[in-house]
Amino acid sequence: MSELTLTVMRLGFLAVLWLFVIVAVQVIRSDLFGTRVTQRGSRREAGRQQAARQAPPQQRQQSSGGRRGRNTPTKLVVTEGTLTGTTVALQGQTITLGRAHDSTIVLDDDYASSRHARIYPDRDGQWIVEDLGSTNGTYLDRTRLTTPTPISLGAPIRIGKTVIELRK
Amino acid sequence: MSSTSNPSTQHTSTIGAIGAPSRRNTELALLVFAVVIPVFAYANVGLALDDQVPAGLLSYGLGLGLMAGLGHLAVRKFAPYADPLLLPLATLLNGLGLVAIWRLDQSERLQASRTFVEAAPRQLMYSAIGVAFFVAVLFFLKDHRVLQRYTYISMAGALVLLLLPLVPGIGHNVFGARIWIKIPGLGTLQPGEFAKIVLAVFFAGYLMVKRDALALASRRFMGLYLPRGRDLGPIIVVWIISILILVFETDLGTSLLFFGMFVIMLYVATERTSWIVFGLLMSAAGAVGVASFEPHIQTRVQAWLDPMREFELSRAGVQDGIVHSEQAMQALWAFGSGGTLGSGWGQGHSDLIGFAANSDFILATFGEELGLAGVMALLLLYALIVERGVRTALAARDPFGKLLAIGLSGAFALQVFVVAGGVMGLIPLTGMTMPFLAYGGSSVIANWALIGILLRISDTARRPAPAPVSNPDAEMTQVVRP
Fold it and tell me: Region Disordered: what ranges (chain A) (predicted)?
């Protein structure tokens, strides 16, 4: 085998190996830069598609105009406690909180009950927090919840040492 | 996490990644790539050595492709939302390791040695068993949180695995390190590799329960949070165990790995820097203390401080009761003669290292034949595996999964550091294996299982919540808005 061929193969192999590394980094690009910028138009379109697929409440909410659409929370953020920084995207699903292993957000907290609370959208797409008969209670701002209560954007919901809030 | 601190922007954070695409097709494309690269390397070795494409190319390529395909199908079936990178990265490293082992099998110098066996076919078989383990983990472990129930059983299991090599009869001493067990009729096994995973399960379960006590009850002293004496208990117990491993099995690597993994998980669980300081001090004290009376460790340290002297002593055949080894110096020469771009596949002389060239010292072969550029790419592949593991830990929504993912990827990173650092002369050499690259059944099987567990955690973390069920209460109750 000629020297030239071997040199070409040697450099070619290194190039291919590095190409793999670069492709792999491209795959996780979104992680490395942390966020994805979503244009408002495309997001509304995405929301419409989703609404068409999923539930009538959201359809109504989308059609009811821009003001509500802008104030619709898109994610739930844990702001205090051991899970600080965890985010759950809100897509019309019920989010359960508690110490039970099958909760959406598993709380590791002596003051939390195993099925502590749940957060779900009502027919109008308004997000509601409901205490599921927990021992130490769920607090919205400073008040202990007794009935299912609508959540406004950025209002802290406190369960033991964990605080979560809804954000756009 | 970056955008959550800044709610005013229009960015969407993707940590929880609910509703994220499953990305299985990305994984498939990368897997094809990850199979093609080793096949290219294999052909390259054949062309460089014998001027012809090796006869086994097709069967080798098919074998690797079949393994990758099975792994991919299992992920598609049992963990559809798992991370798309882990499987291709592991496949590529495993494939490159097979090529390097096969390349060393071709060396006439090694074939002439007494202990020569064709290692590549065996390694291919071990890899297949490893992938089978990987599939089994995905199949049987439907939810990683099940492991939490076995916290203390894991502790007992890990201790048994670590102590097995000391049991007379099945323990098996190879070149000064007592880390193998012999199973009659099946060959030898290195239980420490499996203990790594089992111990991570124990640490995760234990720290999840105890972390508040460890983090909050502390006094502040000179800028450090000093934990209470009674909370020091567990770290001291783990420290003693790792010192005992060092003394009785004379295995510096395993002992560092376990203690390091515990300190990493302790730090992640409590967010206290003081644990890192304590950990570093304790491991330094332990290593120095043991090295002062254990001859096997002393040799290693000698070979690290002055490899050239060891080389000359060994060449001169000095018999002073200590085994002198040429290998540390030879590995450095291999790296040196590789230079930046390497000599090319099959054209190096790393086979001069002789015994253990394809296991502990396999990185030297890569260093010589692929050069600095190739070794950097390999280290980046390892770094990407660790990064995906840490990312999985961030995305996990339960503390146990977070700690387990951090523990497993931390152990993986530590192992790569200890082995690569040892071969390159940064730290004293230890008898551990480069994950996936090096020849060794236990290592490759255990690491495939580790990747399986990481994939399971990431699948749970990225899986979208079940379809919204219409809430009966919401229909019935009239909510009065303020």
Answer: 38-74
